[in-house]
Amino acid sequence: MNHSIRLTLGLAKLTVVAALAALLFVIVINAIKNPIDTASGRYTADFTDVSGLHVDGDVRTRGVLVGKVKDIRRLRRAGRNVAEVAITLTKPYRLTENTVLSVKYQNLTGIRYVDLSVPGEPGKPVTHLPSEKTRPSFDITKLFNGLQPVLTTMSTDEINAFTRNAIALLQGDGGGLAPMLDSARKLTDYARDREQVISTLTANLIRLATTMGGKSPDLIEFLQSLSYPISQAMTVLPLFGKTDQLGPGFTRPIDNMLIDLGLSPELDIDKTVAGAFSSVSAAASTLRLLPAAFAGLQLPTLHSNPGAMSCSHGIAQLPTDVKVLLDGSEVVICKPH
């Protein structure tokens, strides 16, 4: 009797556990599928790449769930392979000729969703959008090709922040270029060769831009922000050689010569002048001798041309005050006739 009771209790417990497990499984599946109550219509759109997008994926606009992905098929249109994605939308949302659908990252785990962008002028209602009206998916891991040595020195939070900023840039979300430029600067801080890191990052972004068909305006602007300083530097590349020749190798000897002449940064001009002249009148008297000193330096040149100071009618007799004024200036005034 006791054995049968224990067996019955064991089976009851097992049944309860199985029921709870089944209930949790249903809850998890519903959370993953994220079902919607009603759907107003079924539409299709062509994408050149839907990597990471799955059936029962979300269709969102401004973060609000407005539909679900119902089917994904690979087709060939106009000589190229495309993925036709079937979606359903809830009222009042619908596709129009100016609607833009984009495959975007929902989180860093790689789950994608379809973003529905409604323009100011929606245009005529349609049931199908060609690939020209859609933005394909992209693989963010391609951005890190060649950057593994740098990434190993970064923390997980820094790598996640860099990834989020890159995704926001590529998808046209977030705060624009500033966060990504800041992440690129931080990335180069960990690199020994910054130029190589910038070159690798730019090449990876160009490949992603090619994959997206040039449909990421923020990415194009970011690449232009990187290429502008590089292109400007290339225009003055020949001047770098002159800078090397006329830089420290040229200015250092001149600096040494000035120091030998006494013109060093430690030179105290006030102290030197005070030591050379005992008073202001003595300094003025010394300065009055400068014209005569300079004239004396020019005497060899003047004597080399004897006729330079000769007068045909003789030298004029000057008053005493004029002689004092012209004293030492080597000025000669001749008689007019």
Automatic annotation (TrEMBL):
Residues 42-117 form the Mce/MlaD domain. InterPro entries: Mce/MlaD (IPR003399), Mce_C (IPR024516), MlaD_Phospholipid_Transporter (IPR052336). GO terms for biological process: biological process involved in interaction with host. Residues 127-227 form the Mammalian cell entry C-terminal domain. The keyword Membrane applies. Keywords: Membrane, Transmembrane, Transmembrane helix. One of its GO terms (cellular component) is extracellular region. Pfam families: Mce4_CUP1, MlaD. The chain crosses the membrane at residues 12-32. It comes from the Bacteria. PANTHER family: INTERMEMBRANE PHOSPHOLIPID TRANSPORT SYSTEM BINDING PROTEIN MLAD-RELATED (PTHR33371), MCE-FAMILY PROTEIN MCE1B (PTHR33371:SF17). This is Virulence factor Mce family protein. It comes from Nocardia africana. The lineage of its organism: Bacteria, Bacillati, Actinomycetota, Actinomycetes, Mycobacteriales.
